[in-house]
């Protein structure tokens, strides 16, 4: 699935450069905060997105940092003392940040490529008026497993994560929202329940899992699964694609009869941003079909810009892990922002569950 993408910078990019071409001026430092392993960086002959952007806009240097979860992103911004210009949270976290005045409205005059975003990804409940976000990727949460060690008869549902046959080889996702969603799906609840009794029941189910868990992980999931130190884990489809590319014995599935999360990650500008116009140029750049196509080829997630598929490896553009069919997606459920009380209860319960594992 590796593909070298040759990016031809179009006239619109060249025109945009003129506004930032002052000779001898100090470069603008554009601070970007993104999920780990969530942008093509030039490795394995893929496009280097940031290098391409800096070539297109030579007066801008991108300072790039990563986080492991929406909750980690929120905590860092809420605590203050940091200034990022572009962040890429998930749908429900965007809704929370809008509610708490943590995001700036976008000037779409600087983001003309937004017109290329598929209508399916616009007017979403997390940003109904399309004021604060531009979709970056979309995907699902399912189960990644090692076909060398896991019996095919055992796969198909979330229950694989509670199968004591694989005790010590199961790794659980280390954030409260995703972990609780899996337990809620098993119990037949909405992934957006705020019922305290249902949240307590989900926590109890997670407690039942802890005796057979190896650990809770996020980005370290890569090494554990690729090196076969762990055999089973729930994780995001795009990351699963990267792991499967490194270890062909890995496979991925979405539960056949249970709900799973379908999400959108979108580019936003925090209220504390110091370089809003440059941030909008970066967002526009990542939304161009050429860049989005080359980028998605590497990170394995779905592109919200259908025109980008023309610039992708056909194998990736048609891969059912990245692009499940409509019948499969109908079983999915998007997260919404929970109330502060429900979020606090879930986080506290999750910490108690993990303390039991330790």
Description:
- The chain is α/β, with parallel strands linked by helices and 358 residues long.
- The chain has 13 helices and ten strands.
- It has helices at 11-18, 49-56, 70-79, 91-99, 176-187, 196-209, 221-226, 237-246, 276-287, 289-299, 314-317, 326-329, 340-357; strands at 28-35, 60-67, 86-87, 134-146, 170-173, 213-217, 232-236, 250-253, 260-267, 332-333.
- The strands form three sheets. Strands 4, 7, 8, 9 and 10 form a five-stranded mixed beta sheet that branches. A three-stranded parallel beta sheet has the order 2-1-3.
- β1 (28-35), α2 and β2 form a beta-alpha-beta unit.
- The longest helix is centred in the C-terminal third of the chain and has 18 residues, at 340-357.
- It is globular and about 60 Å long.
- The two termini are 39 Å apart.
- Give the helices and strands as they follow along the chain: HEHEHEHEEHHEHEHEEHHHHEH
Q: Which class do the helix and strand fractions yield?
A: alpha/beta
Instruction: Provide the residue-averaged pLDDT.
Output: 93
Shape: globular
Number of helices: 13
Say what oligomer this is: single chain
> Which range best describes the helical content: under 10%, 10-25%, 25-40%, 40-55%, 55-70% or over 70%?
25-40%
Unreliable stretches (pLDDT < 50, length at least 5) are 1-23
Head-to-tail CA distance between termini: 39 Å
Question: Whole-number radius of gyration?
Answer: 20 Å
Number of strands: 10
Largest sheet: 5 strands, mixed
Percentage beta strand: 15-25%
């Amino acid at each position: 699935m590796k593909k070298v993408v040759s990016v031809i910078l179009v006239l619109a990019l060249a025109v945009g450069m003129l506004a930032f071409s002052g000779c001898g001026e100090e470069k603008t430092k554009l601070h970007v905060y993104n999920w780990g392993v969530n942008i093509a960086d030039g490795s394995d002959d893929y496009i280097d997105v940031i290098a391409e952007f800096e070539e297109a806009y030579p007066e801008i240097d991108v300072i790039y940092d990563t986080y492991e979860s929406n909750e980690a992103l929120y905590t860092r911004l809420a605590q203050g003392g940091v200034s990022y210009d572009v962040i890429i949270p998930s749908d429900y976290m965007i809704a929370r940040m809008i509610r708490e005045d943590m995001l700036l409205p976008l000037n779409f005059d600087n983001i003309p490529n937004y017109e290329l975003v598929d209508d399916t990804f616009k007017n979403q409940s997390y940003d109904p008026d399309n004021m604060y976000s531009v979709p970056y990727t979309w995907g699902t949460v399912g189960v990644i497993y090692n076909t060398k060690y896991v019996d095919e008869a055992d796969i198909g549902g979330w229950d694989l994560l509670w199968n004591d046959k694989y005790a010590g080889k199961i790794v659980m996702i280390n954030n409260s929202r995703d972990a609780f969603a899996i337990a809620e799906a098993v119990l037949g609840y909405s992934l957006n329940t705020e019922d305290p009794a249902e949240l307590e029941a989900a926590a109890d189910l997670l407690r039942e899992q802890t005796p057979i868990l190896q650990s809770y992980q996020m980005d370290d999931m890569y090494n554990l699964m690729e090196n076969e130190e762990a055999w089973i884990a729930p994780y995001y489809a795009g990351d699963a694609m990267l792991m499967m590319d490194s270890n062909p014995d890995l496979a991925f599935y979405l539960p056949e009869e249970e709900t799973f999360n379908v999400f959108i990650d979108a580019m936003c500008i925090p209220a504390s941003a110091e370089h809003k116009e440059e941030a909008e140029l970066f967002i526009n750049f990542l939304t161009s079909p050429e860049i989005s196509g080359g980028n998605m080829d590497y990170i394995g997630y779905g592109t919200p810009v259908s025109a980008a598929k023309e610039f992708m490896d056909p194998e990736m553009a048609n891969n059912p892990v990245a692009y499940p069919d409509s019948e499969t997606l109908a079983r999915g459920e998007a997260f919404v922002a929970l109330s502060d009380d429900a979020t606090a209860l879930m986080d506290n319960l999750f910490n108690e569950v993990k303390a039991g594992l330790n």
